[in-house]
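Researcher: Here's a chain I'd like modeled. Treat it as a single chain, no partners, no ligands.
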Amino acid sequence: MEKIPMTSEGHAAMETELKQLKSVERPRIIAAISEARKHGDLSENAEYHAAKEQQGLNEARVAELEDALARADVIDVTKLSGKNVTFGAFVEIVDEDTDDEVTYQIVGDNEASVKDGKISISSPIARALIGKTAGDSVEVATPGGGKSYEILKVRFK
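Model: Modeled as a single isolated chain. Structure tokens:
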């Protein structure tokens, strides 16, 4: 079984979501199915079919979270340090073409969120950054063509 790297923050968020799905959403959906059954013929009951679809989606997400948590390799990023980009690092980079600066934290696949400044360890940009230090330039193959970035700063919290 392949381990999934994740931060302790990401692990806690997944546990919270799993608890919510099991203790709040699951009973709500069961009650909705029960209520819809009371309305008679199930073959033409839109409420019943919608509730059953919600149940399927909820149970699929529960299974996905349970699998990820079972395979989690939780890394406490507060104990990491160094000059090289590794999992958990905050990396400040500048696009060499546009001079746009951005800071990303490299995290596990399940906790990546570009809007929150978190990129997946398996993303092309993270793979290009791993092992590099401040001052290095990296080339990243993107769907829109190659991009060049310079690493301005590497830090750990």
